[in-house]
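Work Package 4 report. The design task specified in the project plan requires that, given a folded chain encoded as structure tokens, an amino acid be chosen for each position. We show below one input record used in the internal validation round.
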């Protein structure tokens, strides 16, 4: 999704943050007309990315956020491919194998792709993805 912290997702707070189960549901309910989408998507097309998918976005040459621009030639700036990217944590869909009450997230402040969070925490951002068109 181009809007990396849309507050119109079901159950998120006014910043686009939610607990992990709410984030999973919000991604599943996302569809055309929500968060400025005009892509004919329907509920069920969207999901939370895996921690590996998020790691593929991180660019460790940069901080605040650790994300390159669309061309891969410099650091991301507002409106270049994405907008509202926060230098904070985003939920992944990946649970921690030996600690099922936790999920992996990515922190775009310094590029840390593997930070553990309790699934009950509500201050983590939600950034859904969907498969190719």
């Amino acid at each position: 999704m181009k809007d990396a912290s849309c507050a119109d997702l079901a159950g998120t707070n006014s910043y686009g943050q939610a607990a992990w189960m709410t984030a999973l549901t919000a991604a599943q309910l996302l569809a055309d007309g929500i968060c400025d989408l005009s892509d004919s998507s329907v509920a069920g097309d969207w999901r939370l990315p895996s921690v590996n998918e998020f790691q593929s976005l991180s660019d460790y040459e940069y901080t605040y956020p650790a994300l390159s621009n669309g061309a891969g030639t410099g650091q991301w700036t507002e409106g270049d491919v994405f907008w509202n990217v926060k230098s904070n944590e985003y939920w992944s869909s990946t649970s921690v194998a030996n600690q099922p009450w936790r999920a992996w997230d990515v922190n775009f402040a310094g590029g840390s792709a593997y930070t553990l969070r309790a699934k009950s925490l509500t201050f983590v951002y939600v950034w859904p993805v969907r498969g190719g068109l």
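The chain has one domain: 17-130. Validation will be extended to a larger panel in the next phase.
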